[in-house]
Design goal:
The chain has 3 domains: 92 residues, Immunoglobulin-like; 118 residues, no CATH class; 136 residues, Glutaredoxin (3-Layer(aba) Sandwich). Helix 2 packs antiparallel against helix 4, helix 5 packs antiparallel against helix 6 and helix 9 packs parallel to helix 12. The protein is of the alpha+beta class and 386 residues long. It is globular and about 70 Å long. The strands form 4 sheets. A 5-stranded mixed β-sheet has the order 13-12-11-14-15, covered by helices on one side. Strands 4-1-7-8 form a 4-stranded mixed β-sheet. The longest helix is centred in the middle third of the chain and has 28 residues. The chain has 12 helices and 15 strands. This is Thioredoxin.
Length: 386
């Protein structure tokens, strides 16, 4: 679990998933980095995607300055990192994320890339505005990361210690939410507002009604971007699987290729658990799900695992099931993040889960750690299936 937990440390980055913004012609951009945090001789990498293909460039710091130039369609999300393998830099501490878009972008690094500020183009100016509002919470987040690093190996293996730490992260994210909603309300014409709503939806599915309302207040220009349209489709799918709604049936093959229907579990509380073998936070959550399953399986509760693995990771999926001791039914159409059941329920981030009651009604979403146990205890403590 220790290695998995190291990988699962949540980042404070504003953006997780990005969609291309299509324009008719490429326009030039210049990215200039300055400041004492840039040491002469350091190698700086610039990483971003165009048409789903990762592009990389590098340069050497001279006179505490680096420069990148190029052409781009609209805007793309990217990052700069120092000296390290750019393909793994997102898991490292000293990395700075921003938007590459036409114009002159200035990155100022006082002591590290992580603590840089950015200005010069509309999207990045808005990003800076939001990040400044979140700065006090970011400081608390950094402290939580340091607290994690200070844990002994034994503490990192302890399920209660991990649950407490994750609860503290969750508290910080909850305190971010009013700040983020306020930004969206005051910036209805900002692409960053759109991305912020997407991130909030991924972190907390219980915010869907508020996110829907906030989305509708965005300007038509923002809502009609490819990203805006995709987000609305996902919000709509999530609204159809909100608490109190009857769960939509689906069928997927189990590990032996036999079709399994969600409706096969009618009459029990069933937790639809969306995960994948390669997802470190999912694997870290599995002990909690396993503990709940073992505690309540004889009281009218079961789990249906739905994996985001694909054909290339099928063997890893089967191995993870065995290694993690997951004895409940596991299904997957092996289409990765395009899993049909995930689309049906508006799931865009894993681990995620949905709890369905014996009648087939959705009663909870994304209940994790000790909350999963307390929720089930409240529903099943009488020993009744209700």
């Amino acid at each position: 679990m220790r290695q998995l937990l190291r990988k699962m440390k949540i980042t404070i980055l504003l953006v997780i998933t990005l969609f291309p913004f299509v324009a008719l012609a490429q326009s030039p951009f210049t990215i200039k980095g300055v400041g004492p945090g840039l040491k002469d001789g350091d190698k700086i990498w610039l990483i971003y995607k165009i048409d789903s293909k990762t592009k990389g460039d590098s340069t050497i710091v001279r006179n505490h300055t680096f420069t990148f130039q190029g052409k781009i369609n609209g805007r793309e999300y990217g990052y700069v990192c120092r000296n390290d393998d750019p393909m793994t830099a997102a898991e490292l501490h000293d990395v700075f994320n921003f938007y590459i878009e036409p114009g002159n972008i200035l990155i100022t690094s006082p002591d590290s890339l992580l603590n840089s500020s950015i200005s010069g183009t509309p999207t990045n100016n808005d990003l800076t505005t939001l990040n400044k509002a979140l700065n006090p919470l970011q400081s608390r987040f950094i402290k939580l990361n340091k607290d994690f690093e200070a844990l002994t190996p034994a503490q990192q293996e302890d399920i209660n210690t991990v649950a407490t730490l994750r609860a503290n992260f969750k508290t910080v994210f909850a305190e971010m939410e009013p700040v983020q909603f306020a930004f969206v309300k005051n910036h209805p014409d900002s692409y960053i507002s759109l991305v912020t709503l997407d991130l909030m939806k991924k972190r907390n599915a219980n915010l869907i009604p508020q996110i829907e309302s906030a989305y509708k207040e965005l300007t038509p220009v923002i809502r009609e971007t490819p990203f805006g349209k995709a987000l609305w489709l996902n919000i709509a799918a999530s609204m159809k699987s909100d608490i109190g709604i009857m769960a939509t049936d689906f069928t997927q093959p189990d590990i032996n290729g036999r079709p399994v229907n969600l409706s096969d579990f009618r009459g029990k509380y069933v937790l639809i658990d969306f995960w994948a073998s390669w997802c470190a936070p999912c694997r870290a959550e599995n002990p909690f799900v396993l503990a709940a399953y073992n505690k309540y399986k004889d009281k009218g509760f079961t789990v249906l695992g739905v994996s985001w693995d694909d054909q290339s990771t099928r063997k890893a999926w089967l191995k993870a099931i065995k290694d993690d001791g997951l004895t409940w039914t596991q299904v997957s159409d092996l289409n990765g993040s395009k899993n049909a059941a995930s689309k049906l329920y508006g799931i865009t981030l894993i681990p995620s889960n949905i709890l369905i009651d014996p009648s087939g009604k959705i009663v909870a979403r994304n209940i994790k750690d000790k909350v999963l146990d307390s929720t089930l205890d409240g529903l099943l403590s009488s020993g009744s299936k209700r």
